[in-house]
Model the fold of this input.
Amino acid sequence: MHEILIINHYANPDSGRHFQLARELVRRGYGVTIAAASFQHKTNAQRTGAVVSEGIKFIFVPTCSYRGNGPGRVINMLQFAARVKGCLPGGYRPDVVIASSVHPFSWRAGDRIARKANAPFIAEVRDLWPQTLIDMGAIGDKSIIAWFFRRLERRAYKNSRHIITLLPAADLYICSKHGVNRDKITHISNGVNLAEFDRYAQENAGKAEEILRPYKNKYIVAYTGAMSRANQMDTIIGAAREVAAAGADRICFLLFGQGTEVERLKSETAEMGLDNVHFMGQQPYSLIPALLRGCHLNIVAMKNIDLYQYGISLNKLYVYLASGKPIVFSGKVANDLVREARAGISVPPEDSKAVAQAIMAIMADEDMAWEMGLRGRRLAEEEYDIPILTNKLENLIARCLSNECN
Done:
């Protein structure tokens, strides 16, 4: 079978989008190599050499350590893009190169490697650069940084054999901004490995029960994932305050994860005197399925920004669907899966009062909550299970190799 090279700065040999897709490709007979940076952003640890994980070959490209999101992180990105090619084994010739834009410098590296190997180059668009930075307020629309990233973006779209987008409506942006033919773009979202999810839920039920025991008489609203500026945690904290003001003492919020906003959020909840919000710390993914199964409701909150007109593809949302629990979603996005699947209640973005009312409405109707959870699980089974998403990727690879892609 064919050899696939995936370039993803932040890939890990035990979890994540590309690990999941690559593992399924290996099971189908493909050879897969993933190039990732030696320095891990979340753990601040350095990895060296190469490892094989479930048949996937991981190569760790030497990059500098850094703290935060300052110049050190940019240097780290540039080092990764410049060194990927030199870290590949001598004589290595991939049949397809997929470079993922966790940052756009990866596209440049992928394009160079694909050209030398005479292989199709597929540009994967995870975040829209520079539009994400512009809409998040990090850079100006007319800034030199925005101009530079647009040049990288345009070059990648032009040189690629095909484009993968995680966002379902990103083609509107790519086609209108850069004149790309719509047929050159395929949407392959994030997803969840349901077999793995169910296995973890069963294996770790005891550990989860122990963690949740102090809240066994509560109605538990769960949040999992990062808590940084990009995550609208203030809406969730505001909802907790609304719930407390309404006298719904049975409801409590368990926040599983870490991030740059955690200390601020802890301080603010203490100042508000909220005793219904509990920061549970970072938990391994293997424990998350069992924890979600032990909670009553899951929550997602998004910022109110124009960027989401192109859609979202949040890992946590697919995991929530897999849990079979109802979801309260606060946001205005192109693809509101919760509303479309009737898997919970959707409310406007940054509206804590509406979030609180939705939580209390679901708590008050157990039959409705059960049906919402079933519909969410069914959606995950029908559209977002990793083998289903791998079918789309495998089909795209075959088309590129047979020169059927635009």
Q: What stands out?
A: The mean pLDDT is 96. The longest strand covers residues 31-37. The chain is about 45% helix and 15% strand.
